[in-house]
Automatic annotation (TrEMBL):
EC numbers, comma separated: 5.1.3.1
UniProt entry keywords in alphabetical sequence: Isomerase, Metal-binding
Entry similarity comment: Belongs to the ribulose-phosphate 3-epimerase family.
Gene Ontology CC entries for this record: cytoplasm
Name of the molecule in the record: Ribulose-phosphate 3-epimerase
Length: 216
C-alpha cells in the first residue's frame, strides 16, 4: 500500500516558510502536517493561523491540522474555512469528541483522532467507526526532536488490526526515523509525520530523502 509522507511543518525553515513549502511540494510530499498548540493541552505553541494561511496559499496538496488544544471544537470551523483537509482532535481534550468529529465531517473535511502515548485503545473504541484517521503519538506531544516511545508499538499493532474492521488509516507522529518508517510500514501503518528524525536537517535534498523513504 502506498504510504503517506507528511512533513511536520513546525520543523520547517521559518526564515523562508514559503520557499520550504514549495520545495516540499515539488519533492512529492503527500500531506502537509500543521501542528497547532495552545500552551494548555501541551506546553508549547506550534504554528499560528498566519503560518497555516501561508502554507495553504502555496500548495494545493492536502493540509492536515493537528489540534493539540483544549476544546478543539472551538476551532474546527476556523480551520475548515481556512482550507484544512483533515482535522485531528485529541479526545483527551474534548468531552464531546464524537460530536466534534461529526462537526468536522459536516464541514466536508476528513476527521481524525490523535491519541497520546498514555491513551489506551480501549478508551477510544467507540470513536473508531466515526473517523477517517487515527494518529498515534509516539512522543508526548508538544515538541519536535524527542525520543520515540517504544511502548507505543503494541498500541499501533492493535490499531492496525482494528483499522481493517473500521476502515480508518493509521498514522504515526513523533520521532519517526527512516528505520521506523521501514518497520511500521511493514506492520500496516499508512501515514508518517516526518520531522527532525527523518526529514528536516537531514543530509540530501527533500526529493532524495522522500525517494529513499518510499522504497520501504
Ligand atoms: C509533536 C508534533 C510532531 C513533531 C514531529 O507534538 O506533533 O509533529 O513536530 O517532529 P519529530 O519527528 O522531530 O518528533
Ligand atoms: Zn503533529
Amino acid at each position: 500500500m502506498d504510504k503517506l509522507l507528511c512533513p511536520s511543518m513546525m520543523c520547517a525553515d521559518f526564515s523562508n516558510l514559503k520557499k520550504d513549502t514549495q520545495e516540499l511540494d515539488q519533492a512529492g510530499v503527500d500531506i502537509f502536517h500543521m501542528d497547532i498548540m495552545d500552551g494548555r493541552f501541551v506546553p508549547n505553541f506550534g504554528m499560528g493561523l498566519q503560518d497555516f494561511e501561508l502554507v495553504r496559499s502555496v500548495t494545493d496538496k492536502p493540509l492536515d491540522v493537528h489540534l493539540m488544544i483544549q476544546e478543539p471544537s472551538k476551532y474546527v470551523e476556523k480551520f475548515a474555512d481556512l482550507g484544512a483537509d483533515i482535522i485531528y482532535i485529541h479526545p483527551e481534550a474534548d468531552q464531546q469528541a464524537a460530536r466534534t468529529l461529526a462537526m468536522i465531517q459536516q464541514k466536508g473535511k476528513k476527521a481524525g483522532i490523535a491519541i497520546n502515548p498514555g491513551t489506551s485503545v480501549e478508551t477510544i473504541l467507540d470513536l473508531l467507526f466515526l473517523v477517517d484517521y487515527v494518529m498515534v503519538m509516539t512522543v508526548n506531544p508538544g515538541f519536535a526532536g524527542q525520543q520515540y516511545l517504544a511502548y507505543t508499538d503494541s498500541k499501533i499493532e492493535k490499531l492496525v488490526g482494528l483499522s481493517k474492521i473500521h476502515h480508518f488509516k493509521v498514522m504515526v507522529d513523533g520521532a519517526i526515523s527512516p528505520e521506523k518508517v521501514a518497520q511500521l510500514s511493514k506492520n500496516g501503518v499508512t501515514g508518517f509525520v516526518l520531522g527532525t528524525s527523518a526529514l528536516f536537517g537531514k543530509a540530501g535534498t527533500y526529493q532524495e530523502i522522500l525517494t529513499e523513504l518510499r522504497k520501504y
